[in-house]
Design goal:
single chain; about 160 residues; alpha+beta; two-stranded antiparallel sheet
């Protein structure tokens, strides 16, 4: 199970700028489990050099951490990991929305629901906190396929 205490709030200008790129969202999603640059490149089907560049950017702004190493046929690879990210503001969410859009359009079974409802400020905070807790406490099934869950509360 993911530890909700490990959630990272994307708050600095550098972090928000880094998260404008949809590939970096895909990387942070994949890095819920420690992986090397080579493993990320295979999983995301992106050139290893591009992955290395984006991982370096994410590490520099504190959104990806080195958590160990693994030795294989190609030598020693650094393992990276990212905590679940909580984004606020236009810069960071632009890349996230692009990532979600691409994933939903590629999945013929994707489910999406959009609703507007009148809520007080206290209700908005309560709903957002509840949804965040539900998602952060979902137990991960190691051998199950990955699924994305996108939560947002916004002024309509």
């Amino acid at each position: 199970m993911e530890n909700p205490e490990l959630r990272t709030l994307v708050e600095t200008i550098e972090q928000r700028e880094a998260m404008r790129h949809s590939t970096r969202h895909r990387i942070t999603l994949a890095l819920r489990e420690p992986m090397t640059v080579s493993a990320l490149a295979r999983e995301l089907r992106i050139n290893k050099g591009n992955i290395a560049h984006h991982v370096a950017v994410l590490e520099r702004v504190g959104l990806v951490d080195r958590v160990g190493s693994v030795t294989g046929r190609g030598g020693t690879g650094i393992l990276y990991r990212s905590a679940p990210l909580c984004l606020r503001g236009r810069d960071a969410t632009t890349g996230m929305l692009q990532t979600v859009t691409e994933a939903v359009l590629a999945d013929s079974d994707a489910f999406a629901l959009l609703r507007t409802v009148r809520l007080t400020s206290a209700q908005v905070r309560s709903v957002a906190e509840h949804l965040e807790n539900v998602v952060l406490h979902l137990p991960a099934q190691r051998d199950a396929p990955r699924h994305g869950i996108f939560i947002t509360v916004f002024d309509a």
